[in-house]
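Class, discuss our next protein.
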Amino acid sequence: MKLNIANPATGCQKKVEITDESKLRILYDKRIAAEVEGEGLGDEFKGYIFKIMGGNDKQGFGMKQGVLTASRVFLLMTQKTSGFRGIGRRKGERRRKACRGCIVSQDIAVLNLMIVKQGEGPLPGLTDSEKPRMRGPKRASKIRKLFALTRTDDVKKYVNTYRREFESATGKKKSKAPKIQRLVSPQTRQRKRHEVSVKKVAMAKSQAEAQDYHKLLALRLKETRERRSESLAKRRSSSIASKEKVAV
């Protein structure tokens, strides 16, 4: 079995292959997110504690959290779930896809582990060197949290920490930095103020039009009432005149 061991503290990752079944026995019947002591995997991992993050079987099907089985199952999946990307599908479409359960068994070919606690001795390629992050956070609030900035500090200056230089296919030297997301700039505030003012003008216009409409409606109702009263008065006067003629 191949073990992909990652160390979040240094950003390094290393692949270790173990063929001894007696060492791998401590991993069997463990679930994803379970913690395993590294001493059983070898003397070099003494004192280390690993966390199982996932893995693949021999055919490449990934383990899925929440599927409490050690075998491969076929689940009816929706879009944007682990194991089913759903690109180019119809909205709401579901498909039956194969995935491996969250329990480690002998059919697992690659297992992903993460170092939770560092042991006594260093591991070459994992603890002896540091690999800086190639790409930093993009959201403005997370950049402020990373560099302990306040609202008054300019976030744009700190993005250059993660600016990387590279050579394009044509041979030109270029540089790239993360594009800041959710940055509240003066243009954003002005745009928001403009949208609010446009909404206020539209609301005032609709209220004025509603008032004019109600006034016109009241005038029309008054006119209809007057016409109706006039017609009723004419009918009464004509009926009275006809009764007087009959009496004479």
About this structure: The mean pLDDT is 90. Helices lie at 21-24, 140-147, 156-159, 186-247. The radius of gyration is 38 Å. Residues 186-247 form the longest helix (62 residues).
